[in-house]
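Aim 2 progress. For TAXI family TRAP transporter solute-binding subunit, the working sequence is reproduced below.
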Amino acid sequence: MKLDIKSAFVAAALVLPAGAQAQDFLSIGSCPVTCTAYTWSAGIADVINRNVDGVQATAEETKGYVANIALMQNGELEASMATSLSAYEAWAATGNYAGTEPGKILSWMSIAPVAMHIIALEGGPVNSVEDLKGKRIGMGQPGGVSMLDANVLMAKVAGEDFEPFRVRLGDMVDMLSDGNIDAALWNGSFPLAPVIKLAATRDLKLIPVEDGFFDALRADYPPYFRLSIPGGTYEDVADDIPTYGLANGLVISADVPEERVYQMTKAVFENLDALAGVHPAFGKMSKETILNGFGSPLHPGALRYYREIGVPGIEDFVARTGG
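Predicted structure tokens for this construct:
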């Protein structure tokens, strides 16, 4: 018989001799071992193991963020890396997760932002978000997180009035350079190496996202938040480009006990300096960024810790998300 996560945590305590410390197991889904999220997961697991008695955390190699949500819904992972959009849709049982059980996956902590790049060429037919309608658009590969964001953008701006090309970023950039698509969409951390390469040989432009379009988008998708791609990030793009993005972060099962999540959250936050030696993204985390991008409720254990340390905007976040 397969125990649910909460039962497994309780059972671990029941079978131990008197005075022994319960050993709870926390599997953190990430991605293939070569990707950044695996490095993040491994660093967090190490900090938890060193600082939280009775928890054995493990970074699990997976196929990626989309697969992680399914594994969590099946009870095969207790926590995982995810984008804040996937976290929201899984919690609300909407979008890509319509028909699943809502409320099982909760927000834990935001780690680093990703920015929507709308990539085009000078002299081409795309000069605004509205120009994407009716055009040939690179969307990202099937099963990839960026493709989910591209789907959301194009549904809002064009409905079905466009020709999608669902390929990897490197292939999209080549197709754009060769004139086989009119624009490429990619939600990722900047700078993007294939876009740097494109800018070295072609006159690149990034399409700004105006306030009106962003406000309409965020009304339907609360995890999106405003940010800019700084001028100079890519050759020939001198000005800051207003766009929007998501958070890469951690989500956790609602079945993990509150006290455990409180202890683990405290351990991670109090060891950000050490984690910055694992990956520089941790060095940019703070009370001001820990909620970035999340549109779904926090796990009660995380909420308890964030209130304790006075995370700015925490009560507004609770009012907006319900937790």
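The first strand starts at residue 24 and ends at 29. This observation will guide construct design in the next reporting period.
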